[in-house]
Fold Polyisoprenoid-binding protein.
Amino acid sequence: MLKTTTTMALLLLATTALADEYTIDPAHANARFAIDHFGTSTNHGGFYNLTGTVKYDAAAQTGFVDITIPVSSLNSGNSRFDTHLKSADLFNAAEYPVMRFVSKQWHFADGKVSRVDGFLTLLGQTRPLSLTATKFNCYQSPILQKPVCGGDFETTLDRTQWGMNYLVNMGMSKNVKLNIQIEAAKK
């Protein structure tokens, strides 16, 4: 099994090594979340100034993404709520200042990115996560004068899988809708 896993990892690295490399633009990247609040309303918030790398080869239908999400950038529009979200009850920003998503495999349908499977590290725990691509495109940026690729991705995750159990036993939802938007410019 280890030999097979190692061989597959090397094949993936070799394939994405030929892909064009892009740098995520923090001004055009964010991760927003929505969670039901005891069946009454939906709490929203987001993380901004995401950084990282994208490797993408449309012809070979391969890709790779490594996104760093700074927990300190969390913004719900309410500073008091942000302070609680960053506390040890939830995101524990003091001990875990970043979240990270690293892809394992990109899926394509009709030549377009349809899903990205990978791993999300949150609260020091790494678990599998699949992101559905609702939009993905590349274009020649008239401002940057270089190719830019990016898209919108979404999923619903069970926060308790990462040990974020705050108020679940009191009836607060464990399911969180996550939307990630990135744009990345070719290096």
Q: What stands out?
A: The two ends are 36 Å apart (CA to CA). Helices lie at 2-17, 79-85.
